[in-house]
């Protein structure tokens, strides 16, 4: 028996309707029984009950999509993945976001189209991905932003060059510039991690963001150099978590490109 803001719920039902050309809409109804239970997690328990029948418009290799997939898995939330590159589906999800980018998360009538907003939403609903203390939340959020900006921009040069051209046509100046920028960006991350197991108090949105970036780096042949041994060990621990294999893009690993110095 579940709880709805402190009241006992005898049953929960869901009805589905379809707008023409649009995504399915879910309407949740709960039947409460007499009685009340007080507790700090009553509201969160009910909100988690509503985290069913989720839809994620997704692109496998997109790092923003991958970090959302990791966050969902680590939060123990099931989701239906829809290939955003399908011509039929593209017409659907592009009407849902002014940015015309994925990921897009659908929870009933709720539409969230920004990866970091999705992570914050999942944290609010589940109590995971961020520490409870407001001060402790700062570092995971900063690392998440750093991953999207500096790490992402460095790896973009490598990935786009290798993805868009045959190997004999690769611009190695562009690739090595990206590798060099990636190596420089790791200095800050290594300092912020130090000897800790996580960038925050526990697994957080920082781990989601960086695991996705490092995973793509590995897939495109970019290694974390030995001078950043703490980051190497951290990444190996992330790969050992069930969420890594469960959410990884289905792509082989390219030839290694080493980061110098």
Can you characterise this structure?
46% of the residues lie in helices and 17% in strands. It has nine helices and seven strands; from the N terminus they run βββαβαβαββαααααα. It starts with a strand and ends in a 14-residue tail after the last helix. With 261 residues, the protein is α+β, with helices and mostly antiparallel strands. It folds into two domains: 51-128, 3-Layer(aba) Sandwich (Glutaredoxin), CATH 3.40.30; 134-247, Up-down Bundle (Glutathione S-transferase Yfyf (Class Pi), Chain A, domain 2). The protein has a four-stranded mixed β-sheet with strand order 5-4-6-7. Strands 1-2-3 form a three-stranded antiparallel β-sheet, with helices on one face. This is Glutathione S-transferase family protein. It holds the Pfam family GST_N_3. InterPro entries: GLR_AS, Glutathione-S-Trfase_C-like, Glutathione-S-Trfase_C_sf, Glutathione_S-Trfase, Glutathione_S-Trfase_N, GST_Omega/HSP26, Thioredoxin-like_sf.
Summarize the helices and strands and which ones pair or pack.
Blueprint: E1 2-4, E2 7-18, E3 24-36, H1 42-49, E4 54-58, H2 63-74, E5 79-83, H3 87-93, E6 104-107, E7 110-112, H4 115-126, H5 138-164, H6 172-193, H7 205-219, H8 229-240, H9 242-247
Parallel strand pairs: 4-5
Antiparallel strand pairs: 1-2, 2-3, 4-6, 6-7
Keywords:
Glutathione-S-Trfase_C_sf, 2 domains, GLR_AS, 261 residues, three-stranded antiparallel β-sheet, Glutathione S-transferase family protein, 17% strand, 46% helix, alpha+beta, Glutathione-S-Trfase_C-like
């Amino acid at each position: 028996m579940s709880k709805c803001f402190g009241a006992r719920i005898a049953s929960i039902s869901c009805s589905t309707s379809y707008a023409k050309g649009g995504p399915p809409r879910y309407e949740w109804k709960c039947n409460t029984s007499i009685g009340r239970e007080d507790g700090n997690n009553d509201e969160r328990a009910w909100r988690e009950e509503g985290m069913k029948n989720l839809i994620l418009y997704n692109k496998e290799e997109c790092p923003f999509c991958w970090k959302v997939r990791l966050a969902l898995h680590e939060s123990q939330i099931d989701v239906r993945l829809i290939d955003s590159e399908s011509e039929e589906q593209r017409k659907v999800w592009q009407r849902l976001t002014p940015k015309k980018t994925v990921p897009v998360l659908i929870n009933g009538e709720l539409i969230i189209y920004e990866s970091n907003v999705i992570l914050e939403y999942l944290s609010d609903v589940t109590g995971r991905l961020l520490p409870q203390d407001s001060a402790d939340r700062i570092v995971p959020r900063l690392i998440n932003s750093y991953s999207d900006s500096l790490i992402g921009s460095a790896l973009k040069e490598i990935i786009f060059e290798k993805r868009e051209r045959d190997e004999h046509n690769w611009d190695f100046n562009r690739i090595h510039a990206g590798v060099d920028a990636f190596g420089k960006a790791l200095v800050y991350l290594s300092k912020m991690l130090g000897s800790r197991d996580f960038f925050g108090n526990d697994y957080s949105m920082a781990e989601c963001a960086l695991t996705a970036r490092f995973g793509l780096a590995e897939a495109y042949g970019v290694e974390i150099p030995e001078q950043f041994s703490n980051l190497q060990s951290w990444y190996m621990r992330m790969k050992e978590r069930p969420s890594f294999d469960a959410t990884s893009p289905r792509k082989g690993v390219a030839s290694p490109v080493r980061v110098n110095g």
